[in-house]
């Protein structure tokens, strides 16, 4: 009986804290979200707006991840496949590592050094992540050529909506 109660408690706990799709699927970013600062690999500060401006005119996939995240690591091969199958799409990786040291180690450990990487030095809770309702990782977003949000919410690189969105934007 104790075992059954423990299993039930764990199940309820997991359901209450699991990733849930936001009620509102946003199509643009707030001013506060756009000025959110991140750091690049060299420790240079950059805003979300600057990242979007750098990729303007291209379809962009944003991948939220961390090296400590088991679900992110399980998704990594499929995320790499998505990137490989879409050579005309830019990919940006936003890390939620807990420290700069962890960010650097994860980039080395998972062969991410040659990719466009940024780290939320401010931590998980910040204006950008709060605005996009980031409650779990991995998470994927597709941004159109004008920096609008084309696909707001995906939790797997295998989500067929990601590829469908990319395809429609590239037509």
- Count of discrete alpha- or pi-helical segments spanning 4 or more residues: 7
- The gyration radius over C-alpha positions equals 17 Å
String of helices and strands: HHEEHEHEHEHEEH
- What fraction strand? 15-25%
Shape: globular
What is the spatial order of strands in the main beta sheet? Answer: 5-4-3-6-7
**Contiguous uncertain segments of 5+ residues:** 8-17
Main structural class: alpha/beta
Determine the mean pLDDT.
90
Helix share of residues?
25-40%
Q: What summary fits the major beta sheet?
A: 5 strands, mixed
Please give the alpha-carbon distance between the first and last residues. 59 Å
Task: Write up what this structure looks like.
- This protein is of the alpha/beta class and 171 residues long.
- It is 40% helix and 20% strand.
- It is built from 7 helices and 7 strands, in the order H-H-E-E-H-E-H-E-H-E-H-E-E-H.
- The protein has a 5-stranded mixed β-sheet with strand order 5-4-3-6-7, with helices on one face.
- It is globular and about 40 Å long.
- Residues 8-17 have low confidence and may be disordered.
């Amino acid at each position: 009986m104790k075992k059954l109660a423990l299993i039930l408690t764990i199940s309820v706990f997991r359901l209450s804290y699991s990733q849930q799709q936001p009620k509102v699927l946003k199509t643009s970013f707030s001013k506060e979200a756009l000025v959110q600062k991140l750091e690049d690999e060299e420790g240079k500060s950059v805003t979300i707006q600057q990242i979007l401006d750098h990729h303007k005119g291209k379809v962009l996939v944003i991948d939220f991840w961390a090296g400590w995240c088991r679900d992110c690591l399980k998704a990594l091969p499929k995320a790499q496949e998505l990137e490989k199958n879409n050579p005309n799409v830019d990919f940006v990786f936003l890390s939620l590592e807990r420290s700069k040291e962890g960010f650097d180690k994860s980039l080395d450990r998972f062969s991410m050094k040659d990719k466009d990487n940024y780290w939320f030095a401010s931590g998980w809770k910040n204006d950008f992540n709060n605005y996009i309702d980031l409650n779990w990782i991995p998470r994927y977003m597709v941004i159109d050529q004008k920096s609008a949000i084309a696909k707001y919410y995906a939790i797997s690189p295998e989500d067929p909506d990601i590829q469908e969105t990319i395809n429609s934007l590239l037509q």
